[in-house]
Amino acid sequence: MEPIEGIILGPLAGPLSAFMGSFIARLIKPDEYWMFGVIAEPIGVLFAGLLAEGKWKHSIAAYSMMLAAYFMHPFGRMLPLWTILDVLLALILIYPVSKNRHENL
Known about the structure:
The protein is mainly alpha-helical and 105 residues long. The protein has helices at 2-28, 35-38, 40-52, 56-72, 74-78, 85-104.
């Protein structure tokens, strides 16, 4: 749902609505894994909205920082590379897909 929220609402209203929705949901039904909704969902919506507007550099920077943090952690260096192939593929495809999308509009 995050990509759809980001594309429809954009990079400003999308993350705000995602944050409010996940915050209210955690107030109604508390969860021990609250951070995965309250923090991660608005960030996903933000970058989906930025990509929809053609601002791919922000997404490249975010993916690069997250991958750097992953590999700096001891578990990130121990786990096999195939566990994050989807993230690496997304990082590689951000620019070509964003550029191709805006050329076809």
